[in-house]
Amino acid sequence: MRSWRKLFGGRKPVIACIHLPALPGSPRYAGKIDRVYEAALEETEIYRRAGVDGLLVENFRDMPFFPDRVPAETVAAMAAVTREVVRASGLPVGVNVLRNDAAAALAAATAAAAHFIRVNVHLGAAVGDPGILEGRAHETLRRRSFLESPVLIFADLRVKHAVPLVVRDLATEARELEERGLADALIVTGRRTGEAADPAALLTVRASCRLPILVGSGLTPENLAHFHAQAQGFIVGSFFKKGGRAEHRVEEGRVRAFLQRRAELEGRSSPEAGAAFSRGRVRSAACR
Questions:
Q1: Which helix (DSSP H) or strand (DSSP E) does residue 58 occupy?
Q2: Which CATH number fits the domain that encloses residue 22?
Q3: Residue 49 is inside which H or E element, if any?
Q4: pLDDT tens digit sequence for 84-114
Q5: Residue 114 domain flag
Q6: Residues 128-176 pLDDT 10s
Q7: β-strands 116-119, 125-128: how paired?
Q8: Counting C-beta atoms within 10 Å of the first and last residue's C-beta, which end of the chain has fewer, N or C?
Q9: How does DSSP classify residue 238?
Q10: Number of domains forming the structure of the chain
């Protein structure tokens, strides 16, 4: 099994989202699978050149989403595209199969030699736009063991675009994801895509568990300082796009501006040296 430290060392990684075009079978699919590969690799190259520390591949444009199991064609496309991203980037790569298919994400990540998955609802249940999202930690962990997969599980805590069926205090939910869900890292978000998380919520989660915690929505160079001290990593999607809108194309200047702000907060002058160090580390990291 990998560990967070073997994947990212002591750094606070910036993980950039690759929002794929609509995949085969989804309502907005354009009938050109080559364009899906091209778009994914175009974004991979921009992010790699700018110096991010990791990538997260998502079927972002497959709405309306399935609440749980996605069809075989989605799993196949995610695995195939993710493998190309892994090969092209040399970075830690994750998979998120929306809206909440952890089994598909794990299968795709394992087949693609990716490094982690994001699971929107790992324990408990929530209500979102697709309906009820049910945590399947019991299945996901057993499947990972059966596959002998080194893939890590990054679990959302009160994921955006959903509300829990039963509201409990945030500290209890964080501890249960660590102790009962056996998650490898937690993700704190705002209520919607592009909406910032609550810094007070991050403090609560930080005090409640020992897992690495990532902030997973609404980050900008202007608000990064509110989260940098308490978070162990950052997942960024919307800000990297033109106008800060998730549906637009990635702009390299926005990526570099965010990374420069991260470098300033860490007392460094440029993100490039750290990115080169990160790329070298992930190539040489061995499973423990």
A1: strand 54-58
A2: 3.20.20.70
A3: helix 33-50
A4: 999 999 999 999 999 999 999 999 999 999 9
A5: yes
A6: 999 999 999 999 999 999 999 999 999 999 888 888 888 889 999 999 9
A7: unpaired
A8: C
A9: G
A10: 1
